[in-house]
Amino acid sequence: PNIININTRIAVITTVFLLLAGFAFFMVSEYHHSLEGLSLRGKIAGAFFGSATARTAGFNSVDMMMLAPASILFYYFLMWVGASPASTGGGIKTTTFALALMNVISIAKGKDRIEIFRREVANESVRRAFAVIFLSFLVIAVSVLILMITDGESGLSRIIFEVISAYGTVGLSLNVTMGLSISGKWVLIVTMFLGRVGTLTLLVGLFRKLRSLQYHYPTESIMIN
After folding, report:
1. What are the residues whose beta carbons fall under 8 Å from the beta carbon of 160, sequence distance 6 or more?
2. Which one of 18, 90, 115, 131 is most buried, counting C-beta atoms within 10 A?
3. Residue 190: exposed, middle, or buried by beta-carbon count in 10 A (0-12, 13-18, 19+)?
4. What is the rounded radius of gyration, in angstroms, for the C-alpha atoms of the chain?
5. What proportions of the chain, in percent to the nearest 5, are helix, strand and coil?
6. pLDDT per residue rounded down to tens, the chain (225 residues)
7. Distance CA 182, CA 84 (A)
8. Which residues, 6+ apart, have CB-to-CB distance to 158 below 8 Å?
C-alpha cells in the first residue's frame, strides 16, 4: 500500500502540468496583448494567475476582452478540464482528462490495460471517464446551440466561452452574460448545475438500478476508425 494513493498522484501531476502549460502558453500568447505594459515580474504573475484562474478560480487580473484569439481557445481547454475531483470546482476534472490521455497512449502502445505507478487502472474508471467526456461535449454543444438561437448576436466564440465557463463553474466572462435574454440566462444556469453536479452523476442517480447481471453475451469487436 502507498501512503499517497494513485488518485492523488494523478490529480497532483495533472494539475501541475496544466498550470505550467497554461503559464508557458499565456506568457507567449499574451506578452504583447493583455500583459502589454507590465514589468517582467508582472507578466510572469499575470500569466501564472491566468493559468490558475481558468480552472475554476473565477477571478481575472487582466481585461478578458484583450485576450488574443489563441488564448481564448486555450481557455476553452483549461475551463473544460476544470478542477480535481472531490473539490468545489466544475469541469470534467483532472483525473478524467488524465485517464483519457493514458488510455490513448496505452492503446497506441498495444496494451490492453492502463498501468501507472505499478498499479492497473480499473476498466470501470476508464468507462466512466469517457462517459463524462462525451456527456460534457453533449451538454456544451446543446447549450451553445440554444444560445445561438436565443442570443446569436453575441457571436459564436464568445458564446462558447460563456458556456464552457458556466460548465466549469469558472466565473470568467467576455461580457456576454449580463446581456443575455432571460431564456439565455436559464440555459447558463442549467449548464452550471450540470457542470458542478456532473451529468453522469445525475443520470446515475435518476436511472441506475442496483442489480448484478448473472450472464454474459458473446463478445464482439466494433470497427473503430
Report:
1. 76, 140, 144
2. 90
3. middle
4. 20
5. 65, 0, 35
6. 667 788 888 889 999 999 999 999 999 988 888 888 888 888 898 889 888 888 877 788 888 888 888 989 999 999 999 888 888 788 888 989 999 999 888 888 888 888 888 888 888 888 888 888 998 999 999 999 999 998 888 888 899 999 999 998 888 888 888 888 899 899 999 998 888 887 777 777 766 665 667 778 887 777 776
7. 32
8. 174, 176
The identity of residue 94, as a single letter, is T
Q: Write down the residue that cell numbers 456576454 correspond to.
A: 176
* Pairwise CA distance, residues 81 & 95, whole Å: 9
- Among the listed residues 80, 74, 86, the one whose alpha carbon sits nearest the alpha carbon of residue 22: 74
- Nine-digit cell at 76? 476553452
- From CA 180, how far away is CA 173, in angstroms rounded? 12
State residue 1's pLDDT score: 65
DSSP 38-64: --HHHHHHHHHHHHHHTTTT---SS-G
Query: Residue 80 in contact with residue 92, Cβ under 8 Å?
Result: yes
Dihedral sign computed on CA atoms, order 24, 8, 92, 220: positive
